[in-house]
């Protein structure tokens, strides 16, 4: 590749979820590139190096970064890449991509036989023609908690989507397709859409009932958003023990369209309660009625405002 005369400021990382810390680093990257009159570039990976469940599909991550005006190179985490020393990796960045400044996020490291300190990367940079710069840690201004993808995963697994949204800068969501289920919900007046995630390696939040929003993508390219209640679990009242975990969404407002095979996106607004077994279907119906009321209140009030704040566009 020919990058003669072109400055390239780069950073390397998983960037899973593109949370506020990642966005802070990306803006700093753009500033550094602007100062040099060069391009900003992110090197990320097609899978998580530690095989953690993902906070967003790789294609969505790439789109988020590119939307900020940053070039992206997605590297396959192959055995050959794993075997590269930090020095050889930096040499490859300089030789193949023209990288002459490397912005390193807080606690970021890479490469086999990697240095044990930031100073070690600075020294490697001197030998490979790359200036290495450290980015400060990003902490939440309101509470002083450091933002990380691991922290967000723990929040979602622990059924704490509101705090996760604070760190992501948006509500956590899953994209998938509506598939056929047992259709038991419609027999008690609460039909549900069974959602199968497109990305099998994406994190599914902890089991329980959530207030949510569902975005339906239609054939003509438009999208409609509806308030919904969502259950993750095994449906213990109507299913036998050992039933597979499902993601079921009941759309509020008397929704009755046929949406099997439709692409959807569900957002997790707030955790309502744990999944539980009821002694009768009447008991389940009473609880579902209370859940639906809670969702309607949330989506029509504070959480409806938050949804508009977190999501820049409904297109």
Which tags fit this structure?
Elongation Factor Tu (Ef-tu), domain 3, 5-stranded parallel sheet, 24% strand, 11 strands, transferase, 6-stranded antiparallel beta barrel, 32% helix, 315 residues, elongated, 2 domains, Riboflavin biosynthesis protein RibF, EC 2.7.7.2, EC 2.7.1.26, nucleotidyltransferase, Rossmann fold, alpha/beta
Could you please describe the fold and organization of this structure?
The protein is built from nine helices and eleven strands. The radius of gyration is 23 Å and the shape is elongated. The strands form two sheets. It has a six-stranded antiparallel beta barrel with strand order 6-7-10-9-8-11. A five-stranded parallel beta sheet has the order 3-2-1-4-5, sandwiched between helices. The protein has helices spanning 20-36, 58-67, 79-83, 86-97, 118-128, 149-157, 161-168, 281-300, 302-310, and strands spanning 8-12, 39-45, 71-75, 99-104, 131-134, 173-179, 193-197, 208-217, 223-233, 246-251, 263-273. A hairpin with a 5-residue loop joins strand 8 and strand 9 (223-233). It starts with 7 loop residues before the first strand and ends in a 5-residue tail after the last helix. Helix 6 packs antiparallel against helix 7 (161-168). The chain folds into two domains: 8-134, HUPs (Rossmann fold, 3-Layer(aba) Sandwich), CATH 3.40.50.620; 172-310, Riboflavin kinase-like (Elongation Factor Tu (Ef-tu), domain 3, Beta Barrel), CATH 2.40.30.30. The model is unreliable at 302-315 (pLDDT under 50). It is of the alpha/beta class.
């Amino acid at each position: 590749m020919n990058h003669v005369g072109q400055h390239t400021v780069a950073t390397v990382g998983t960037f899973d979820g593109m949370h506020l810390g990642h966005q802070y680093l990306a803006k700093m990257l753009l500033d550094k590139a602007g100062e040099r009159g060069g391009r900003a570039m992110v090197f990320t990976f097609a899978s998580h190096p530690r095989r953690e469940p993902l906070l967003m599909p790789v294609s969505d991550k790439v789109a988020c970064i590119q939307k900020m005006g940053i070039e992206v190179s997605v590297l396959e985490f192959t055995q050959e890449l794993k075997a590269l020393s930090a020095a050889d990796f930096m040499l490859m960045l300089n030789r193949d991509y023209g990288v002459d400044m490397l912005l390193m996020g807080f606690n970021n490291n890479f490469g086999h036989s990697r240095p044990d300190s930031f100073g070690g990367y600075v020294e490697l940079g001197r030998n490979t023609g790359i200036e290495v710069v450290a980015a400060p840690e990003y902490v939440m201004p309101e509470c002083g908690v450091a933002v990380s993808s691991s922290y967000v995963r723990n929040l979602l697994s622990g059924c704490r989507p509101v705090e996760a949204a604070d760190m992501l800068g948006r509500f956590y969501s899953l994209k998938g397709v509506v598939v056929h289920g047992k259709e038991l919900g419609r027999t008690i007046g609460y039909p549900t859409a069974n959602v199968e995630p497109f990305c099998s390696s994406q994190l599914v939040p902890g089991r329980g009932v959530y207030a949510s929003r569902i975005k339906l993508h239609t054939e003509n390219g438009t999208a409609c958003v509806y308030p919904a209640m969502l259950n993750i679990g095994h449906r213990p009242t109507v299913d036998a023990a050992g039933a597979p975990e499902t993601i079921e969404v009941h759309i509020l407002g008397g929704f009755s369209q046929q949406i099997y095979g439709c692409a959807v996106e569900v957002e997790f607004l707030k955790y309502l309660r744990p999944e539980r077994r009821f002694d009768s279907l009447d008991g389940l119906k009473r609880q579902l009625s209370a859940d639906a009321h809670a969702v309607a209140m949330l989506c029509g009030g504070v959480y409806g405002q938050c949804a508009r704040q977190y999501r820049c566009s409904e297109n």
